Fold this sequence. Notes:
It contains three helices and three strands, in the order βααββα. By secondary structure, it is of the alpha+beta class.
Amino acid sequence: VVDSFFIIRYAENSGGFLSLGSDIPQPYKTILLLVFPCVALAAAAAYLVISNKFSRAEIFFISSVIGGGISNMYDRIVYDGLVTDFMNFGLGPVRTGILNFADLSITFGVLALLAVHFMKAGKEKRGVAR
């Protein structure tokens, strides 16, 4: 689509991140890639709703992770354990795996949460009040 930087290619992923776990036998694969993530997403969403510990930015970033997770779980439920991936980014030989918007949402949320965490830790180390 954009020279070789951005390529659209259809792929069905039966595993997790970078197809990890795609060769796990059933029913363990269903437990690891569908049941456990659904329980974790529900718990995270519930905690986000009842907790008052988070800033607006943290709520946004955590919601980004939860939303991406829900999207991938929806794919797994509707498409018999598969997640549809279609985007590939890279420069020259350095490329991402094939992924989807849900994966981007999860990655963005996690990286942003890490950045917020390290900024808070840096402020606390310097003795700066929140």
